[in-house]
């Protein structure tokens, strides 16, 4: 006759109770990149779509978002990071603060592009055209004529 390895629990395991005020926060799933809502105070979130477990950043951590230049997926990262690697296409994206970037229209498809100040060119993620960042310098030539 088989003997059970462990007795069946007589009381159900404790369940997580969300905060009474229903406060929620959000983050992007580390697996499928869907937006996840979770109760404040949770340390990790299991995605209902792909079952990936995503760690919740510590309270008070400022998060930022950007769109991946390779696959246009929304990425979330801790504010202050200098680069963010996309988990979908593995593109390494520059994560710049607003005061470190400038804008130019793509020379081919006219898509608005962002680039880091000081860059000499920027490659469009849509059409792959490389737009030169020109510095407008007007040169005046002084010509002395003899009377």
UniProtKB/TrEMBL annotation:
InterPro entries: LSD1-like (IPR040319), Multihaem_cyt_sf (IPR036280), Znf_LSD1 (IPR005735). It holds the Pfam family zf-LSD1. It comes from the Eukaryota. One of its GO terms (cellular component) is nucleus. Residues 29-53, 68-92, 106-130 form the Zinc finger LSD1-type domain. The chain crosses the membrane at residues 124-143. Keywords: Membrane, Nucleus, Transmembrane, Transmembrane helix. It is found in: Nucleus. SUPFAM superfamilies: Multiheme cytochromes (SSF48695). The keyword Transmembrane helix applies. The keyword Cytoplasm does not apply. This is Zinc finger LSD1-type domain-containing protein. It comes from Erythroxylum novogranatense.
């Amino acid at each position: 006759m088989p003997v059970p390895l462990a007795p069946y629990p007589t009381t159900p395991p404790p369940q997580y109770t969300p905060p009474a005020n229903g406060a929620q926060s959000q983050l992007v799933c580390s697996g499928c990149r869907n937006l996840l809502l979770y109760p404040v105070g949770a340390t990790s979130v299991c995605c209902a779509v792909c079952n990936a477990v995503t760690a919740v950043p510590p309270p008070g951590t400022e998060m930022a978002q950007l769109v991946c230049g390779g696959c246009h997926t929304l990425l979330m990262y801790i504010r202050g990071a200098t680069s963010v690697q996309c988990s979908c296409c593995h593109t390494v994206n520059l994560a710049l603060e607003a005061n470190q970037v400038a804008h130019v229209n793509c020379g081919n498809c006219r898509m608005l592009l962002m680039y880091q100040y000081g860059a000499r060119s920027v490659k469009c993620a849509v059409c792959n055209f490389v737009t030169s960042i020109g510095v407008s310098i007007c040169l005046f030539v002084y010509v002395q004529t003899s009377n």
